[in-house]
Every structure is written in structure tokens, then in C-alpha cells.
Write a structure and sequence with these properties.
mainly alpha, ABC transporter involved in vitamin B12 uptake, BtuC, two-stranded antiparallel sheet, globular
Length: 380
């Protein structure tokens, strides 16, 4: 009995356990607040609306429909995982990648020109898009490393530069690239060479064409990033720089090198997010006055996942799951923005993950000190 108690006591004290517990609390509180919002807007349909949000594809009675929409949810989760990893890598190096939307945008430009326009093979388009995004991201790294320009400021400015650059180029491209009637890029279809192949997963998910190799690729990337950060010298140097750049420099670790590597990898991952979105055909580039929101969703997913590659898989799926479920409540008297409000609440609360962990840590220390004090009094 004592062994079991000791096991659970040590399990609770682990940082990973605290991260899971706090993330679940944030998600639960967000869902409760979301339900209250539904009650205020339309009390009679609030319960069913919440069931739709939480159920997503499970609300369908047909197994075929369930499989189809489940595949859709998984496919749409892949780009968010890639974007969350982009935020994670930069954060581990002590940087806050608020320019991920711009990096995504530059990758979109490459994908539209080489994919929709030139119909190049999907893997070549993906690689070039990732390289372009990495170079764009490295601009932030160069400004930070050599001129000490705050990466948040330069990242935000590069977001807007990338946005209007992509808008300008694509809106003046040919008909094979730009659909002027709908003010959006031409979607890459499954018949295109640039479309990421399904490798039979479309049949597994009841003919859902967007379910394919991208879902496998992102899991491989998660494993690579996990190994990079945990088992390699480069990962160690990135984390050492992020924890204390002065101590890292004293130990012989180049701060400039770490910053450039971190920003380049982050950009490449943001470019991968664009590939997994556009080269799967479920989204396209639309003229907009604001940078793509996936860059900001990646921040929330990364923190909700406890800034851990494995945790990010679950947090990204959770966000996409409720977002897709929320899109099904418009027939119940709720506007499409209602689901966005619920998601935003949960995303906002995800910022408190580390605050709650710190509160738990201080409470734990206080209990241990009280226990030591009582033991001393008993001995006396």
C-alpha cells in the first residue's frame, strides 16, 4: 500500500503530470465558459449545441459519415501540429516566434506558383516552400543575432510585409493560379502532381481525399523534433541558449548560431504547415487584410500542449476537434463566430498553463516545508 501511495505521490510531483493536469483544467474551464455563452445566445439549443461541438463527427449516425469527418479532422490537425512545433522550437531557444504567420504566407506563395501554377511534384513543392519559409524566418534571426532587434517586433512587421507581398503577387497571377471571381488562389486538387498522395488512407476514411500521407509525415516530424531537442547536441545548445544565453556563451555555445538554427527550423515548420494545408486541397489563399490565424493558433496549441512535441499532438487535435464541431451549430440558431468565441476562450486560458503549474509548485513546496517543520517539532 505504501509503495502504491509513494508511486502516485512521485507521479503527481512530475512536471509532465502537472502539465497534463493544468492543460486539462484550462480546457475544461474553457468548455464550461463556452457552454455559458451558448446559454446566453440561445438557451433552448445550448445543450445540443455543446454536444455538437464536443461530438464533432460523432454526432453523425452513419458510420461512413463518421469516418469521413474523422479523417477530415485528422487531416486539418496536421498543419496546426506543424505550426505548434514551429512555436515550440523557437521558444526552447528563448525566442517568441510571432512571425510564424508571415513564414506561412511566404510558403503559400511558393506552393501557389509551383503547385497550382506549374504543377511540380508535391515533394519538391513542399521542400522549396519549407526552404523559402526558413529563409524568411532567418531574417528575424539575423536581426536578433547581429542587431539585437526584438524578434517579436521584427516578426510582426515581417508578417505584414509577407501578407501584402503574397496578396500583390497572387492577385496579379494568371488564371491557373488565381481565381479572380472568388478572390482566392486556385485549389490544388487530387488530380494534380502537387497534391500530397493519399497512399490509400482516403479509402480507410470513407473516401475522404484530404486524408493521406500528410497525416503520417507530421507524426514523423514530431518524432524528429522530439529527438532533436532531447537527444542531440544541437537541441541541447538551443535549450541552453534559451535558459541562459550568458551561461551558454560561457560554456562555448554560440548564441548567434543557436538563434539562426532555431529561427530557420521554426520557419521550415511553418512552411510545412502551409504545405499540409494547401497541398491537401482543403484550403486556399484568400485576399485578406490580416495575417493567417494559424500562426496564432499555433501559439495557443504549443502552450496548451505544455511545450512538448507529444503534448502538441493532443492539444492541436483538441482545438481542431472543437473548431470543426463548432462549425456544425449554425443550424441551431448560433452564428459561425460562436464556435470561434469558444475556441478563443480556451486558447486564452491556455496561457495560464504555466501560471497554474507555478501555483501548484509553490503549494507543493509549502506543504513540504510544513511537513519538515512538524517532523522537527515531533523530534523535539
Amino acid at each position: 500500500m505504501n509503495k502504491i501511495k509513494s508511486f502516485f505521490s512521485s507521479l503527481i510531483k512530475k512536471d509532465s503530470t502537472k502539465t497534463v493536469v493544468t492543460s486539462l483544467w484550462c480546457a475544461l474551464i474553457g468548455l464550461i465558459l463556452g457552454f455559458l455563452i451558448l446559454l446566453v445566445i440561445n438557451p433552448s439549443n445550448a445543450a445540443y449545441g455543446m454536444t455538437s461541438v464536443l461530438g464533432n463527427y460523432l454526432i453523425f449516425s452513419s458510420p461512413t459519415d463518421r469516418l469521413n469527418y474523422f479523417g477530415q479532422t485528422l487531416a486539418k490537425t496536421a498543419p496546426l501540429i506543424a505550426m505548434s512545433l514551429s512555436i515550440l522550437v523557437s521558444y526552447k531557444a528563448g525566442l517568441f516566434n510571432l512571425g510564424a504567420s508571415g513564414q506561412y504566407s511566404i510558403a503559400v506563395l511558393v506552393i501557389c506558383l509551383l503547385g497550382a501554377g506549374a504543377n511540380w511534384p508535391w515533394y519538391i513543392v513542399m521542400i522549396i516552400a519549407m526552404i523559402a519559409a526558413a529563409i524568411w524566418s532567418a531574417l528575424t534571426g539575423l536581426l536578433k543575432a547581429f542587431f539585437n532587434v526584438n524578434e517579436v517586433i521584427s516578426g510582426i512587421m515581417l508578417n505584414w510585409i509577407a501578407l501584402y507581398l503574397v496578396n500583390g503577387i497572387l492577385s496579379n497571377a494568371g488564371e491557373s493560379i488565381w481565381d479572380g471571381a472568388h478572390s482566392e488562389s486556385v485549389a490544388i486538387t487530387s488530380s494534380s502532381n502537387s497534391f500530397i498522395p493519399s497512399i490509400g488512407l482516403d479509402k480507410l476514411f470513407a473516401g475522404n481525399s484530404i486524408a493521406g500521407l500528410g497525416m503520417i509525415l507530421i507524426l514523423i516530424v514530431v518524432i524528429i523534433i522530439f529527438i532533436l531537442l532531447k537527444k542531440t547536441t544541437v537541441g541541447y545548445e538551443l535549450k541552453a541558449t534559451g535558459l541562459n544565453s550568458d551561461a551558454a556563451r560561457y560554456a562555448g555555445i554560440s548564441k548567434v548560431k543557436s538563434i539562426l538554427i532555431a529561427t530557420a527550423i521554426s520557419g521550415a515548420l511553418a512552411g510545412l504547415a502551409a504545405s499540409l494545408s494547401l497541398q491537401n486541397g482543403f484550403t486556399s489563399w484568400r485576399l485578406s487584410s490580416v495575417p493567417p490565424e494559424i500562426g496564432f493558433q499555433g501559439i495557443s496549441s504549443a502552450f496548451l500542449g505544455g511545450l512538448h512535441p507529444i503534448g502538441i499532438i493532443f492539444s492541436s487535435y483538441f482545438i481542431i476537434h472543437i473548431t470543426e464541431g463548432g462549425s456544425m451549430i449554425t443550424d441551431l440558431g448560433f452564428s459561425p463566430e460562436t464556435a470561434s468565441i469558444m475556441t478563443s476562450v480556451i486558447i486564452y486560458l491556455s496561457g495560464f498553463v504555466f501560471f497554474i503549474k507555478e501555483v501548484m509548485r509553490k503549494y507543493e513546496i509549502k506543504n513540504e516545508l510544513n511537513m519538515l517543520s512538524r517532523n522537527k517539532e515531533n523530534k523535539v
